[in-house]
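Reviewer comment 2.1 asked that we show a complete input and output for one of the modelled complexes. We chose the orotidine-5'-monophosphate case, as it is the one discussed in the main text.
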Amino acid sequence: MSVLEPFGARLRRAMDRRGPLCVGIDPHASLLAEWGLNDDVAGLERFSRTVVEALADRVAVLKPQSAFFERFGSRGLAVLETAVAEARAAGALVVMDAKRGDIGSTMAAYAESFLHKDAPLFSDALTVSPYLGYGSLSPAVTLARESGAGLFVLALTSNPEGGEVQHAVRSDGRNIGATMLAHLSVENAGEEPMGSFGAVVGATLGDLSTYDLDINGPLLAPGIGAQGATPADLPRVFGAAVRNVVPNVSRGVLRHGPDADTLRDAAERVAEEIRHVVAPS
Ligand SMILES: O=C(O)c1cc(=O)[nH]c(=O)n1[C@@H]1O[C@H](COP(=O)(O)O)[C@@H](O)[C@H]1O
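Response of the prediction step:
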């Protein structure tokens, strides 16, 4: 198995060169319709190819949402494989948004599916759910380290329902979201320029100054655009940690398709707004 440079280092460089924006590839049925495409495999293929061709040579990260591909079965997964390979070939890092999480022995198989360098769906990083216990993710942590990939662990999610789990307080007084951030700090300790084990922290959450967001790793921040957050919210939500934030926008960019130039302009506008609020490194 060939080994890549660690994800954290590759991501830092991409963010410095291209800006930190992550655009989601979320082929909602409603977006396929807006783009004048059928809700079928051909529509899915056209949609994802258009996004990759328009953006993979300029944004730091593309984040395909696997559910929208899985919906079409094996042919949808074939489209996803192509999108991942072509996005990576054009220079974007790919975060596979599959939100996997299972008991350790099964987690190992999920890790093999997305983080083994020779897997058809190998991605630079994978979103994972720690809600079977952070330790259940350890096979994914181990394989990510071996292959130079990364993880984004759901810590404080952008959806309003997340609080019932993530804000629950443990017997030691720390809440669950903060506990996940603390686990990630340990994973990333001593890594330069930053570690490969990121947290998902919603841009919609308001002031997070009670949390220690300084995990020496990336913070994937969804919620900008369709969920109501704006780039201007980022410094208020993330404070000094804004430097490590990878803001994700999916529908807020995708609704500007299907024209590739219009899509590029939309992504560039958001990227510019983000550049204004995030201090250059
Ligand atoms: O892990 C994620 O990517 C994620 C975590 C989270 O807390 N909230 C969240 O919205 N996401 C994903 O980020 C994307 C947000 O899409 P838009 O609301 O269209 O920008 C979707 O693919 C969500 O599944």
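The mean pLDDT is 97. We note this here for comparison with the apo prediction described in Section 3.2.
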